Automatic annotation (TrEMBL):
It comes from Mycolicibacterium pallens. The chain crosses the membrane at residues 66-83. This is DoxX family protein. Keywords: Membrane, Transmembrane, Transmembrane helix. It comes from the Bacteria.
Length: 86
């Protein structure tokens, strides 16, 4: 069985989550603040853009590997910032 439908669905969810940062940024403020206590609003929009791009890249087979690397780097950056700001 191919994992492609699951990966595409994940891409749609990640992209939709990214776009929702622009529609309802207040939903992400507390999570973003833990990683970026300064300029939280700007980082909310930056995170939304990153998540949108990663999600769209997951959908397309030609960019999927790039998206996976980006997703790992993004997660590592967020995690490091959360630990650093505790």
């Amino acid at each position: 069985m191919s994992a492609e439908p699951l990966i595409k669905a994940t891409g749609v969810v990640v992209a939709a989550t990214g776009l929702s940062h622009f529609v309802r940024p207040e939903l992400f403020e507390s999570a973003t603040k833990s990683a970026f206590p300064d300029n939280t609003v700007a980082h909310t929009y930056i995170d939304g853009g990153i998540e949108t791009v990663i999600g769209l890249a997951l959908i397309a087979p030609k960019t999927r590997k790039f998206a996976l690397v980006g997703l790992l780097a993004y997660g590592a950056c967020l995690g490091a910032n959360i630990v650093r700001n505790r």
